[in-house]
Write a structure and sequence with these properties.
Organism: Paenibacillus sambharensis
Structural class: mainly alpha
Number of helices: 4
Pfam families: Trns_repr_metal
Shape: elongated
Strand order of the largest sheet: 1-2
GO molecular function: DNA binding; metal ion binding
InterPro entries: Metal_Tscrpt_repr, Metal_Tscrpt_repr_sf
Protein name: Transcriptional regulator
Helix content: 55-70%
Radius of gyration: 17 Å
Strand content: under 5%
CATH topology of one domain: Methane Monooxygenase Hydroxylase, Chain G, domain 1
Largest sheet: 2 strands, antiparallel
Order of helices and strands: HEEHHH
């Protein structure tokens, strides 16, 4: 488990990957919104999520093996931290690409949408 947590920390920082356009937004007429992430960002997000998936399976195994509760709780904290890292990376990309683009085009509704999203992330 410790190796999985350590490998998450070695992934490129959000600032290394997020300066690129991320979202194609066409929400005003009801059309589905979609994102377009660079291959580098997408690969980084998928790698992080794969590691998190492995960590969660490890936590399940710890519970099945009756590992000491404090050790399990520490691994849960590591999983939560790793998920927060994915969220921060995606949020930074979203703000620099999608949100900035929509603001430049005069769409101020994106601010309320972003605030709602941030509120959910901070729960």
């Amino acid at each position: 488990m410790a190796e999985q947590q350590k490998s998450t920390e070695l992934a490129p920082a959000a600032s290394d990957l997020s300066g690129e356009e991320c979202c194609a937004h066409t929400h005003s007429d009801g059309e589905e919104r979609r994102s377009h992430h660079s291959d580098k960002l997408k690969s980084n997000l998928v790698s992080r999520l794969n590691r998190i998936e492995g960590q969660v399976r490890g936590v399940r195994g710890m519970i099945e093996r009756d590992v000491y509760c404090d050790d399990i709780l520490n691994q849960i904290a590591a999983v939560q931290s790793a998920l927060n890292g994915v969220g921060k990376l995606l949020l930074e990309s979203h703000m620099k690409g999608c949100v900035a683009g929509r603001l430049e085009s005069g769409d101020r509704q994106v601010i309320d949408e972003l605030l709602g999203t941030i509120h959910k992330l901070l729960k």
